[in-house]
Amino acid sequence: NFTYIVTDGDLNSNESIISVNITPVNDSPLGASIENIEVYQNQNTYFSLENYITDYDTHSNDLTITFLPEETDSENSSIIGSSFYGGTILSIDGDNFTFEYQASTTNTPTEDFILYKISDGELESEPALVSFDIPWGNPGIFRPGANNAVSQLIDTAEDTQTEITFIAFNSDPLDSSNDFPISGDGVEVEVVWGPYHGEVIENSLSLDETTGDYVIMSGGYIPGNNYGDNVGIDEILRDDECAESGLDSLGYIIYNPSIDEYTDTTTITFCVHGVNDPPYLFDLSNKEFDEDTILEIPITRLTVEAEENDIVINSDHITTFDPDTLFNNVD
Fold it and tell me: What is the CATH number of domain 1-140?
């Protein structure tokens, strides 16, 4: 709060206090990269993310970690991620965010990568990199092919620009001609369809990080106005975690100038969560009525997401106007 006075140059008014109520808003969590985790032969490789994640609003145990690329094998629930070059990530201790990395046994590379991100259920971090050093790796022959892009499901809030990442990696770590240019020159991302309930800010697309093995680009996504609240009738078709929120998606490809090829089209899906919006009051003007009568003033309000019985009106002497007897003028 603060205290103020008004002066006309000669006299000062009495002091008055203005109190400001600062409403907390959700902040997205943060994740840090981990580089060169040593992978020993014939030994389990464990790593913990507990000291690499930060959230200003909730305890880290309330957060959810997603690895990219995500595991698509639904038959093994303990496998939660697939690394760039055939390895797997297994969940060991969700409370402490401890995981196990298992390198590919049929075609073991000398290095491997995976990305992870953290969600608090409404907002999420940008992806962070985990890299593995496998000195005993003995890779066989990888099938040359186009680079691979990474699909994602992103939690975001309505009416807010969200930084999204476009990720692709080299499908053949043995073929240096298949690498991305380390300088990033000529690497491009193209949105080929969507989004349908928002927009990607074209001039915000930029290159964040590139090596021969992978490239990470970013851009800004803005969902439609109040789309998290007005989700439409298709909510019955959605997964439970996004059933009451707005759903949007886009398809993208990434161009590698070294091989003059695009990745396959890959999807980013958005779960747009509603946020609290302030109600609106409209000005009342030019009300005419006879003297010695009472004017009842209707309070018109507009709110996007609250039910009518959730609205509280501070009605101390504002819903009726009772002028003095015989008063007839402008007030």
Answer: 2.60.40.10
